[in-house]
Amino acid sequence: MASLLTILVLDRDHAAALKVLGGEHEIVVPLPSVAALRQVVERLPCDVWLCDLAAPELDFRADLARVRKASPQARVVLTGPAALSGQAAVLVAQGAAGAFVAKPWNLLALRQAVLRLPAGAAKSLPARPSVTLRARPAPRAAAPTRPAARPRPAAGAAPAPLPPDDAHRYRLDELIGEGGVGKVFRAYDLLLDMEVAVKILRSDFIRDPDVLRALKNEAKLCMQLTHPHIVRFYDVGRREGAFFLVMEYVRGQTLYEAMRHPRSRDREFARALGKAVGSALSYAHSHGVLHNDLTPGNIIIGSSGVLKLIDFGIASLVTQRRERQEFVFGTPAYMSPEQLRCDPVLAATTDVFALGVLLFQLLTGRLPQKPDATNRDLALLPRPPVTGVAPAVAEVLDRALSYEPDRRWPSVAELVTAFDSALEA
How far are the Cα atoms of 286, 345, 393, 417 from residue 290, in angstroms, in the given order? Predict the structure, then answer.
């Protein structure tokens, strides 16, 4: 008699999973929430865990450890929207899972992945699903047509082509930003039929193998971040000298643009922004990722009003490879003194400093330094005491802007909580 296969299904679409997976020899256990998973897994060993990477409250690494502790031989099949394929590919390549089945589900493919995945297949799959999907690229003429609702490229701005190996997948439609790291394009992923943002890094960054290695490692970490206030990181690649990053595209305006409006200096706006940014930074810090380039230009307020952070950790990796005499990289006004000195940045207190600058600017409309301060002053001298705000708020921000990192709030969460309380005083 065949043994029973126990399948834990952490997915809102568990009804569909029940239809295709339930059989004479399968026991399917639907889990409505991550909390339910954490309770059930301790009491019920499983053979397969079907996990939706988009499940609210999921901490995949920690929850995988729980499953593996109770059921060491359990296989893991990931699912979720196609936009999560980059994150899933990293997890598969690392052996944390055996396969990824994108939604909307092909039910036959889902059943085959859950019931027939051979042992050890996780390590044989490619690190990036795009490699498999591009194994048989369609001719350029067969590429999906652009949806009518999408805006056309700006007049006079000719699309910039990626190198041939990737041109069939990412079409660059419009230059939407340019900074010290590189150029950002609104682009279209022809394979997944969706808008994305593609950042092409400056060529001099990839000449240093240490910087390139650090960027790749940072990209792998960023692919694992799933938070409502963090722009999703989808893909990373290099073709014929062009190193590029693919991210979620958010239609809206940067905080820098929003700050031109007087309402941005409203206390409630500052409170809401502090909570949203603080939540995103705290989540990233808990996963070992620092931002290190928190500026108004790296905060996007979407057309729906949802705030998103972009560019985690990328700029700081390059900064740390530069000579100590070169103080300028990024936006000095928001950089901590240790960043401007090109000292190693290993703690969350650098993000605490930058958030302190932002909160002060939102309340006062100015930066917390002398108007004539040079980059050298910012790197080697403490910021002057905070003025122009209530004493309780000034005390909170003075601590956030301390010259010495160990005198600052030890975490972003503590800064945000203290700032919120000070506004109430």
Answer: 9, 9, 25, 20
d(CA 343, CA 292): 12
Domain 5-125: give its CATH superfamily: Response regulator (3.40.50.2300)
Rounded average pLDDT per 10-residue block, the chain, 425 residues? 76 77 76 87 87 89 91 91 80 87 82 65 32 31 40 48 57 83 86 88 70 72 85 80 86 89 78 95 89 89 90 54 40 88 82 96 92 88 94 97 96 97 89
Query: Which CATH superfamily includes the segment(s) 159-248?
Result: Phosphorylase Kinase; domain 1 (3.30.200.20)
H or E stretch covering 415:
helix 412-424
Distance separating alpha carbons of residues 16 and 161, to the nearest angstrom: 41
Q: How far is CA 45 from CA 29, 49, 96, 116, 404, in A?
A: 11, 10, 18, 19, 50
pLDDT of 163 reads 47
Strands 5-10 vs 99-103: parallel, antiparallel or unpaired: unpaired
Residue range(s) occupied by CATH 3.40.50.2300 in the chain: 5-125
Token couple for 301: 């307020």
Active-site residue among 47, 293, 311, 398?
293
For 183, 313, 343, 403, the CA distances from 203, given in Å and listed in that order, are 11, 18, 24, 34
Q: Quick one: pLDDT at residue 29?
A: 86
As given in the structure block, the two tokens for residue 209 are 């193998």
Q: What is the pLDDT of residue 180?
A: 64
SS3 22: coil
| Domain 253-424 listed as CATH 3.40.630.30 | no
The alpha carbon of residue 286 and the mean position of all alpha carbons in its chain are separated, in whole angstroms, by 13
Q: Which amino acid is at 12?
A: R
Pair type for strands 194-201 and 233-239: unpaired
For 378, the token pair is: 């910012």
Full DSSP string of 333-369: GGS-HHHHTT----STHHHHHHHHHHHHHHHHSS-SS
Position 408 scores a pLDDT of 97
Question: Catalytic: 311?
Answer: no
Check residue 376 and give its pLDDT: 86
Q: How far apart are CA 48 and CA 4, in angstroms?
A: 11
